[in-house]
Amino acid sequence: MADPRIYRTPIDLPKAALLQINEATGRMYVVQNEDRPRVLAFNIGADGRLENKQIKFLPGTRTSAIAVDEYDWSYFFYQEGDQWKATHYDVTFAARTTIDLPVTNGLINTARFDVKHRRVYAAWTDLNIFNSTSQVVVIDDKQHQYLSTIDISEQMSGLVASTTLDDVRNVLWLSEPVSSIVFPIDTAQVSAKGAIPLLTDPQEPEGIAIQTSTGSMFVVAVVSGSEFEPTSSLNIYDTTRPGYPLIVAPLYISGIFRVLLMSEKILYLVGRGGVLPIELKSLQGQEEIKIKSSAYDGSGEQRPDHPVAVIDNVRNRIHLLNSDGEKGEIITLDFS
Question: Which of 59, 199, 220, 303 lies at a 20 to 30 A Cα distance from 47?
Fold first, then answer.
């Protein structure tokens, strides 16, 4: 694998915490919830320049999830008092409608747009450590209104951390990484299909990725690691086979990686030091791509262990959000 070109694009959001991308258009959305919540939308040009910039001040106290369709129409999920709401914006960021959602408190921290069925799925958990409940709130994009709620677990020990929409199988996959459970949801029937446990290792997982891989294989990758044991174990499952068997025995990798991104051929582990590519076909690790940045080098009281990153498979790029409270930037690794 050739070394990527690395671009650094300054953004005027020093406390940004949320990054989303529309792979169809390459448009990115960065949200800062402190100091007047706002979103910055832009494209990054071939040389790393910020292009077509838009900024929009946001309602509520916390925007925690974004769902964007192929035309850059979007739903922003946020809390106003105890109530969770979703505001639908057009491509110019004009608000079209606001939807009251049937959940209060807790957290919505992930959402996906089902462009095939014109629905939006948002995962919510109530954060009750004694009797945690999680649901998927469904919005009908055709009518721009709340459609239904799907109960996915009555005893969850953590948050629904990631969603992946697989249009080939009409399934929405949700993961709960503390106990490594995958929740398939039939998007045609808008119903849950049960919970499937994955990781049996007692080590709590730190990151999870669910993605279509080479050919028709559907892969779930789980990474675990800790400060006391700075080695990540990588477990890869094939969800097309009964019982979700491990494709290989767990791979052990030096370092802590808590974000996983996947293309058709490469699995990217994002962590404190940078990005580690792993070829899925041979499961061979490449040399880690070091990112020299204050937010990723482990210094001070910043957040080096919890990077925020997205992948753009159309343009073969990875974008990392670097915000340390004083400055903000997007670090782009261009593999094209």
Answer: 303
